[in-house]
Amino acid sequence: MKYELYFKDFLKAIEEKLEEALPPDSRYPSVIHEAMRYAVFPGGKRFRPVLALAACEAAGGNFEEALIPAAAVELIHCYSLVHDDLPALDNDEIRRQKPACHKRFGAAIAILAGDGLLSLAFQLLSRIQPAGKAVGILEELSTAAGTYGMIGGQVADLITKKEELNVPLVEFISIHKTGKLIKAGAVSGALAGGASKDALERVVKYGESVGLAFQFIDDLIDQDGSLQVIKAGEVRQKVRDLIAYGLRELRPLGSKTEKLNVIAGYLLKRLPRGNHVAVD
Asked: Which pTM does this prediction carry?
């Protein structure tokens, strides 16, 4: 079954929560709200929020308990894409089959739209009850988004010259630039679902594994990143090993992890084989 069909209930709930959270583009100053919504809708696979909802269920919760952290992690992800696309960073003109935010609204509004999305994410997280749960989720997502996570990985990527790359450095960039926020999506969902200490530790290990696997798969698709220092066949095997490890960690949690298992299977289906890429 296709990803969109299997997770249709999750995706519908995520879209509704994002729609509810984002200011209407009619609210003054309308251009900033229009730009924020442009950056969020229509979305991609919503991988990180789907992961949060699945992890919430794996922890024994109802997925609706994790809708706020799920929306927040997607807002953080969308903010990062807006800023990554700017001329000072990746200088990409197209995002999700349409002009990048800075091409549509100009660089100044794009920067502020990204800032607005990040601020809104933390505004949402402040509404989580009880307060102790909110603090744990806030710490997880803010750390993953900051210099110990996504920003740190982006900076390392930015300042590293091609001739300086080696396997540990490539893995540092992959883990921090991409993997940390993916892991945080899973962990925040588990925290929202009231995970036990054992379940939380297992979700952490699963999240770390799929986060790094996700970036390695993108490297294989883009023919970049880790492929500059590791052979493609070795990267493919690393992906398989990472996903296998993550799934082993989940086994003691039983049938509640079904959707996390499906997500891992989805990643394996994206794994390029030779010159062919699965696009289900």
From this structure: 0.95
